[in-house]
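FAQ: What does a multi-protein file look like?

Like this. Sequence, then C-alpha cells, then the next protein.
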Amino acid sequence: MREIIHLITPGDHYSPSTGSAIPTVVHGLSRARTAGTPEPSVLVARGTYPDRYRSARAIEYEQASPWPLERVAPRRIVDAALAVLGMPRLVVRRTFRPAFADQGSWSPSVVLCHNAPQAIPLVDHRRHVPVLYAHNNLLRSYSRAESARVLRHVRLIVCVSGSLADEMKEHLPTSMHARVVVVHNGVDTSAFQRAPGRDHDRPLQVAFVGRMLREKGAGVVIDAFRRLDRDDLRLRIVGSDGFDANAALTGFELELRRAAAPLGDRVEFTPFVPREQVVRILGESDIVVVPSTWREPFALTALEGMAAGAAVVASDIGGIPETVRGAGILVPPGDAGALAAALDELARDPEVLRRTAAAGRVRATEFDWSRAARRLDSLVRAVD
C-alpha cells in the first residue's frame, strides 16, 4: 500500500498546542491507522511549533515568501479576478508550491491535500495519487468549469459529512460526483473521561468551546442564559478569536462580555487553551453547547462533548445532525429561546440529563478514529 502524505495549511502547526481542526483530524487518522500500513507523513512548514504530534513523520519545507502586493492587491481579489478570466488562482497556489519541491524523492504516495483545491494541480499525478480532503465548502467561489479544470486529476474528494458532500457537488460537474466520498470525523473516546465527582450537589456546568467568531454562536448561548432564571446553571465560554490566549480582545469578544455582564458569576470566560485542557474542561462539563449559526460541516466539539459524557445541545444545521441526532438535543440555529428551553429541560429533569449524556457516550463510540481510518484506507485502496 502507498504511504499517505498529508498536506495541512501552510503555516499551521501539527501540534497539540493549537486547537486547529485540520491537525486534530490528521492526528486522529494517523494515530488510528490500520496495523501494517506505512507510517504516514505530514508536510509541515519549517518554523511552526516544535512540540508536534508523534502520530506522523514531519516533512519540513520552507514557506513561500509573503505576497508582496498584499496592501495594493489582496490575494483573494487577485485570484478571484484570475478565476473569472479562466486562469489559475496563481497567488494562493504559490503558497503551496514549496511543499511539493521534493516530491520527486518521495516514494509513490497518496497525497491528501486538506482544504487545498489549488494544491491538487501541483501534485505529480503520474507518480502520486492526489486527493482533496474537504473540511469546509472549498468550492463556494468556483464555477463547475473551474472545478473541473483545477480538480481534473483528483482521484477522490473526501468530505467530513454528507451535508458537506452535497454542498461540494453543487460546484462540481456531474461527471465528478462519483469521486465525492464521506469520511466522518472521529474521536478518541479513551481520551475523554467523565471527571470524578461531577455528580455532586452543585450547579450544572455548561460549556461552549470554540473560536470567538459570531457564526460559532457564543452570543446565542449568552442570550439563552439571559432568558433563563436559574441559579443552578453556570456557563463557561472557552476560546479566543485565534489560537493565542494573550491576544487583545476583538470587538466581538468585548461585545460578548458586555452581554454577559448582567449574569455576574454565572458566566466565565476562558481564553484559548491547548488541547489537553479542552479535554479536561469537557470532562468537567454536564452540558456542552454547539450553537453554530452557519452550516458547520461537522463540529468536532459536539462529538467530543458526547465522548466526555456530557449532554450535547447543538444547532440543527450543516453536518451537526449527522452525529448528534438521536443522541443529543437539536435546536434551530440562532434561536436563543429554543436553546434556553433545552437547557431548562436538562436542568429540571436529572433523568433526561442522564439519558441524553448516556446516549451521547454510546454514539461517540460509533465514531472512533479507527473506524474513520479504516474507511479512508478502503477508499484509498480502491483508487490506488
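And here is the next protein:
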Amino acid sequence: MKQDDTLASSSAPAAPQGLGPTLRSLRESKSLSVAAVSARLKFSPRQIEALEAENWQALPKGLPLRGLVKNYARLLETDAEALAVLLDASTQQGHLSHQTLASSPAARSMGSMEKPRSSRGSWGWMFIVLVLVLVVLFYALDRGWLPESWLVSQWFNDVSQP
C-alpha cells in the first residue's frame, strides 16, 4: 500500500513552484500565447517570457513590476493579491517600504503635485483677498456702517489733543 501511495504521488503532476511557472501554467490552461498576452498587457514578449522565467534583471523594478503581475492576473482571471504575494516571495522584496516608494520617480512627481506650483500663485490669492477686504471696508465707510472711533482721522485728533 505504501508503494501505491508513493507511485500515485510521483505520477501526479506537481503544482508549479514560484510566480513564473504559476503564470505560465495559468496562461497555458487558458490557451493563450505569449504574443497574445503581450498584446493585451502592452508589455513586450521578452518581458512576459522573462516574468515566466523569473529573470528579474530583464524586468522593471518596484511598482511597474507589481502592476505587470496584477494586470497579468486579471487577464488570467485569477487572484491578483495571491500572485502579488508570490511576487514578493520570489523577489524577496516583501511589501514596498516607504523609503522605496519615496525614492521612486513616480512618488517624487506625486509629492511635487501636493506642493503649490509657485510662491507667486499663493501671493496672488493673498493679494486678491486683501483687495476684497479693502473694497468691503471702503464700502462700509461710505455707507456709514463703521463707528467714528474706528476711523484713522479720529485717532490723529485724539493723539494731537492733550
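Q: Is there any per-entry metadata?
A: Some entries carry free-text notes. For the entry above: Residues 119-143 form the longest helix (25 residues).
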